[in-house]
Write a structure and sequence with these properties.
The chain has one domain: Glutaredoxin (3-Layer(aba) Sandwich), CATH 3.40.30.10. It has six helices and seven strands; from the N terminus they run ααβββαβαβαββα. It has a seven-stranded mixed β-sheet with strand order 2-1-5-4-3-6-7. The longest helix is centred in the middle third of the chain and has 17 residues.
Length: 167
């Protein structure tokens, strides 16, 4: 086998194995990933939300900005749930009791699931807590947002509203 063909095959295979990194970018399809209700073993695929505007928010109990983001996410959920917005908070805690204690202090009116294997976070290439991904009706990542600062809420709200208004 010629040497240049072998190099090409290695480069091509590295792209195939790194699709999760590519998939987490704006304009690419949302990764298919399995998550579970807190403390349960059954799984569900985030792809089930295709056709809706999906706000995926990775969070952890130890994350102070996550605690600040929950009131905004609850408000966003209440404002847009009847217009097609689905918010899914994906917990990253290793101990489910930590997540439950957090939720006792900061209740969520939106769907909360867990990424027990951490594979979903890898597929989304989560780099910060919280990390949010806004996915359009076609299942394409429209916006990636790292961290949470209260001054950014109106921009996020406007983005969600504009996506919901699209036909």
């Amino acid at each position: 086998m010629p040497q240049h063909f072998l190099k090409f095959a290695l480069v091509l295979s590295s792209f195939c194995f790194n699709t999760a990194l590519i998939a987490a970018e704006v304009g690419n399809p949302m990764p298919a990933c399995l998550v579970s209700p807190l403390g349960e073993t059954k799984t569900e695929d985030l792809q089930k939300y295709k056709g809706q505007i999906l706000y995926v928010d990775f969070w952890a109990s130890w994350c102070i900005p996550c605690a600040h983001s929950f009131p905004f996410l609850n408000e966003l959920h209440e404002q847009f749930k009847d217009k097609g917005l689905q918010i899914v908070g994906i917990n990253m805690d290793e101990n489910v009791d930590d997540a439950k204690a957090f939720l006792a202090k900061f209740p969520a009116s939106f769907t909360v699931l867990a990424d027990v294997t951490q594979q979903c976070a890898k597929d989304f290439d989560v780099k910060a807590m919280p990390s949010s991904y806004i996915v359009d009706k076609k299942g394409l990542i429209h916006h990636v947002h790292l961290g949470f600062r209260p001054g950014e809420t109106e921009e996020l709200r406007a983005l969600v509203a504009s996506l919901l208004a699209e036909k």
